[in-house]
Amino acid sequence: MSSIEEKIQLERSFTDVISDYHQLTKPGITLAVLASMLVGFVLGSGSTFNFVLMVHAIIGTYMIAAGTGAYNQFMERRLDGLMKRTAKRPLPDNRIAASSGMFFSLILIFSGLVYLFILVNPLAGAISFATTFIYLIAYTPMKQVSAFNIVIGAVPGALPPVGGWAAASGTIESPGMWLLFGIVFLWQVPHVMAIAWSLKDDYFGAGFKMLPKNDETGRKTSLWSLVCTILLYPVSIAMFVMGISGIIFLVLSLILATGFLYYSIKFLNERTKENSRKLMFASIAYLPLVWVAVFIDRLV
């Protein structure tokens, strides 16, 4: 560690340090992971809801998700320093030493895995391990190689509801959990592509390949976003047809998909940063509102 890094870290208060470590865990993404896991847990519980098991699933999933986000920032700390959006993160800004960030993240990951294996069930732990492995070993390095990383990254992004369902039921054989997987997977592609198009210069400058090759006009990006948004319709309908959710979820999810589709079409017709940002915000609203629809349908 350089003398400059030491001085920066010594001058920071305890509260500042805690805040930086919290930021290192990517709290927004971690919260989204927990919400998706809870949806899977609730639907996978059927008529026998185990509150204590749910709390254990939340704790274990939080540790793994937070640790995975932190290790991702450790891996990308140099590239993050080249982007305006991420240059002020704790690691590239030298507010946390790289070695400290690495140990912090690994402790969280392994503690979470052990916690899930022992206090929830081995299957839930295995799914969380697969999520972390794909995210860190496949998706993170692939971001510098090919835009196919978006598809790879959508897999670990869509596994939390599967993990939640497995935590509640101890199985991965229910079609319901894979329909939830489909919703998150299909949602994630236009979500990430909209962000990538809005920040394409920043990503390009740092060496991230987040958009299809030879797509200067954004036509491929917008078409892929549109296709995935359209596919949300049959997945949502299948949730109802297979008896996993009721009519309330069906109606609300189709309304939300239509709003999402509107902004996908708008981006396809006029591929500007403004429209990509509108699609990004539509995607940010879509997933939590769909999960709200699941809970409303479950409670009514």
Secondary structure topology:
Layout: H1 3-10, H2 14-24, H3 27-45, H4 51-75, H5 77-80, H6 98-119, H7 122-142, H8 149-158, H9 160-169, H10 175-198, H11 200-206, H12 219-241, H13 247-269, H14 273-299
Helix pairs in contact: 3-4, 3-9, 3-10, 3-14, 4-6, 4-7, 4-9, 6-7, 7-8, 7-9, 8-10, 9-10, 10-12, 10-14, 12-13, 13-14
Identify the CATH homologous superfamily of the largest domain: UbiA prenyltransferase
Strand fraction: under 5%
Unreliable residue stretches = none
Form type: globular
Tell me what the CATH architecture of the largest domain is.
Answer: Orthogonal Bundle
What's the CATH class label of the largest domain?
Mainly Alpha
> How much helicity do the residues have?
over 70%
Question: How far do the termini sit from each other?
Answer: 57 Å
Would you tell me the structural class of the helices and strands? mainly alpha
Radius of gyration: 20 Å
| Total count of strands | 0
Number of helices: 14
The CATH topology of the largest domain: Tetracycline Repressor, domain 2
What's the SSE pattern? HHHHHHHHHHHHHH
Query: What is the count of structural domains?
Result: 2
Strand count, sense and closure of the main sheet? none
Rounded mean pLDDT is 93
